[in-house]
UniProtKB/TrEMBL annotation:
<comment type="similarity">
    <text>Belongs to the aldolase class II family.</text>
</comment>
<dbReference type="InterPro" id="IPR001303">
    <property type="entry name" value="Aldolase_II/adducin_N"/>
</dbReference>
<feature type="domain" description="Class II aldolase/adducin N-terminal">
    <location>
        <begin position="17"/>
        <end position="197"/>
    </location>
</feature>
<dbReference type="InterPro" id="IPR051017">
    <property type="entry name" value="Aldolase-II_Adducin_sf"/>
</dbReference>
<dbReference type="InterPro" id="IPR036409">
    <property type="entry name" value="Aldolase_II/adducin_N_sf"/>
</dbReference>
<dbReference type="Pfam" id="PF00596">
    <property type="entry name" value="Aldolase_II"/>
</dbReference>
<protein>
    <submittedName>
        <fullName>Class II aldolase/adducin family protein</fullName>
    </submittedName>
</protein>
Length: 261
């Protein structure tokens, strides 16, 4: 079945609302740190464009109508805010390298930053951490704030086909085939980093066997499972913070067709 403009409009509205809800969830978990952090969602019609939060807006205040649409040349197609250069450098490279990725998340969360600063790997200590067993990359080339597109390309290359990455001395990065999946993997990975830091501090850790970890990964690390796990959070925020869903109707075809200045 060929998708129509109406189909794209419905899916666009859905992704934007999911994105706004994900930002509200990140705010509730304390992931908002000044100008740092971004979540993106690929536009369903214009696949080389993605929606992203404007620079300097607190996650707890973002609505679907506040989001910026950005093309592969960093041109803001829709929206009135400023574009975060680091967001473009990282996310444009990931969306280009991974056509399967609908959404990507990066934020400067506390446990994620702490874990990124130590010489350690995520171990299969719990059922939850198994979601990342064999599916977690480590980017070990930190050289400052990611403003250069070349570093974004290196991050995307290191991520490969994984669902998540530890950005050494920086923080966490997750991706998914939906906004909900990507957001859940970020929440879960942050929690797993925190659990391992606590366990290490308490005593000698005891990882499960490789066989048990691989088996459990197939149970808790699926795309469908990740999306469903975020469902209760999304429903709670939609009910408690309905302003997050506020949006405006868009006509994007002419704007996307205009050449970059």
């Amino acid at each position: 079945m060929t998708e129509t403009g109406q189909d794209f409009a419905v899916e666009r509205a859905t992704r934007k609302r999911s994105l706004a809800i994900a930002f509200r969830a990140f705010a509730r978990h304390g992931f908002d740190m000044g100008l740092a952090g971004h979540i993106t969602a690929r536009d369903p019609e214009f696949a080389d464009c993605f929606w992203v939060n404007p620079l300097g807006m607190h996650f707890s205040r973002i609505t679907a109508g506040d989001l910026l649409l950005v093309d592969h040349n960093s041109k803001v197609i829709h929206g009135s805010g400023s574009l975060n250069r680091a967001a473009f450098a990282i996310h444009s490279a990931i969306h280009h390298a991974r056509p399967d990725v609908i959404a990507a998340c990066h934020a400067h969360s506390t446990a994620g930053r702490a874990f990124s600063a130590i010489d350690d790997v995520l171990l299969p200590l719990t059922q939850d951490s198994c979601a990342f067993f064999g599916d977690l990359a480590v980017y070990d080339e930190y050289s400052g704030v990611v403003f250069g597109e070349d570093e974004g390309v290196r991050i995307a290359r290191t991520l490969g086909q994984s669902k998540a990455a530890i950005l050494r001395n920086h923080g966490l990065l997750t991706v998914g085939q939906s906004v909900e999946e990507a957001a859940w993997w970020f929440l879960s990975l942050e929690d797993c980093c925190n659990v391992q830091l606590l366990a290490r501090a308490a005593g000698t850790v005891k990882p499960m066997s490789q066989e048990a970890a691989a088996h459990t990964a197939g149970q808790v690390g699926t795309t469908v499972g990740g999306k469903r796990a975020f469902g209760p959070i999304a429903r709670m925020i939609a009910e408690m913070e309905p302003d997050a869903l506020e949006d405006v109707e868009l006509t994007l075809r002419e704007a996307v067709a205009q050449p970059a200045p």
